[in-house]
Amino acid sequence: MLARHMQRLGRDWVAHWDSPQKFCWNSRISNSIRWADHYSWAPYLSTADFTVNWRPPHFFGPWRPPHFFGPWTPPHFFGPWRPPHFFGPWRPPHFFGPWRPPQYWNWQPDNFTHNSSFHLSNPNMKSEGDEPSSKRRRHSGQNDVCSPNEEISSSNQNEAACLSTPPKNEKENTANTRGLIKRHWEYFCHHSKTMKILEDKQIDQNNTEDKGKFDFTVMSYNILSQNLLEDNSHLYKHCRQPVLMWGYRFPNILREIKQLDADVLCLQEVQEDHFGMEIKPSLEYLGYHCEYKMRTGRKPDGCAICFKISKFNLISSNPVEFFRHDIPLLDRDNVGLVLLLQPRFHCKATAAVCIANTHLLYNPRRGDIKLTQLAMLLAEIASVAHQKDGRFCPIIISGDFNSVPGSPLYSFIKEGKLNYEGLPIGKVSGQEQFPRGQRILTIPIWPSTLGISQSCVYEVQQQRQEENTGAEKKEAKLEHTEEIIIAAEKFPSKLQHHFRLSSVYSHYLSESGIPEVTTCHSRSAVTVDYIFYSAAKDDSAAQPGAEDTFDGGLKLLGRLSLLTEQDLWTVNGLPNEHNSSDHLSLLAQFRLIEE
């Protein structure tokens, strides 16, 4: 037996297929014809005369025909019918709060300016001292873990928050305006060895491009691969979720690149699919030629060097893979890229500039791998930048080195030598103040099968160079080589390279001595990004003996200032609404000096 309400349902709604009432689509079917020889609870499909006995579920209430049977009548559970938002003016759902379109919705190329001082906004933060809760917990010594209720609450708030909350009043709007942080251009007056700070990227009269001189700018920027961002989401707990979306981040990154308008771009953490579909087409539209090298492992990001075709011609492009399947030490998939560029004007025909870009291993406890990767990059640079007279063309090395200023790896790049005997592996990069483990670097660090000497050059290349030189130079080099061999036997733990490089940045504020930072997220705020260059002899940062190594050099004209950790936390760290990477961009202006 069926339930009583089911029996009643059947009695009221059984209809014959041929019944005229089935055509009364605009009226409620209240008195349907009952079929003879059929019970009220008969199945929906009757075998006799292909009769259809339709029964709506009991939860529908009084039945109204669907809209496709005729003019549509809304069911009672809809209430008074209102058209959806796409039929008319859009009305935001209640969970959005007051709606404001994201910034990148109105993005247009014409909106860009030539002002190099880009802004960092000051969002409304709930924690004291304008620091995120995770940052405050880290300073207070508490664990960076939320309680379940707190985590759920913060998650809901992040989803509900829009990208920029409108100010409640004029005072709040004024406070947000005052909270903007500018990065200034710092120009160098080499005749007085002083630095001049300008509000905007204006042309300094003392540094104007002289006739016969070639000036150009170089940017190094780790743009934060979206894949790595999602794999390391714990580093971005302080960020609101919308600003972490690639659809929001890329327009910001592209706008910054266009705004700073560098002649050469050295980009790290460039995701392969984003590069092919968005980054490369956008940069080519801006007049750049792009070269790209993806990592050799599973992570789909890599390094890119892009240069303006109006300023340079490409001589050669040389990718460097740090992974070697036959050397257990080199089991990481980091890469580098070395380009040899020729200036298009104001230079002699043989003039060239070597641009290198890399992203070394992050792991703070594998300094042996970092040094070996650096040696491989230096060996490739020595091969590409080497000229017929035995000297090197001017060199720029940029990238994310995952090492802090003053560390052994940093000192090795600048000074050209490193005695690593007894050096703990965890102290090579200086990323950890108290490194775990006390394993010492082996002597030598890498095996001879790598084919790179302790002077960071290819051994085969060194032999060829000796064969191509004259008898006198060859004899002199042999004597010099014997001295190196004797020194290597006496000091087998000594590394060296032929370049005497200078750093564009000093890494500390000149007035207060507060450290500058190039990256800032929930776990740390340090300097790991650099632009090194071969300084000309009249450059204030030139290393002694550089004029004997390089054919000419580079003179640093200016740079885009960096910020301190305190500055960045006043705008909720990185990424934020205006800067869409966890790294700051580095930018320097050079003048090519020829001999």
From TrEMBL:
Q: Which InterPro entries match?
A: ANGEL2_N, CCR4/nocturin_mRNA_transcr, Endo/exonu/phosph_ase_sf, Endo/exonuclease/phosphatase
Location of the Protein angel homolog 2 N-terminal domain: 1-68, 82-208
Q: Where is the composition biased (Polar residues)?
A: 142-159
A biological process (GO) of this protein is:
3'-UTR-mediated mRNA stabilization
Transmembrane regions listed in the UniProt entry: none
Give the matching Gene3D superfamilies.
Answer: Endonuclease/exonuclease/phosphatase
Region of interest (Disordered), residue spans: 118-175
Q: What is this protein called?
A: Protein angel-like protein 2
To which species is this protein native? Platysternon megacephalum
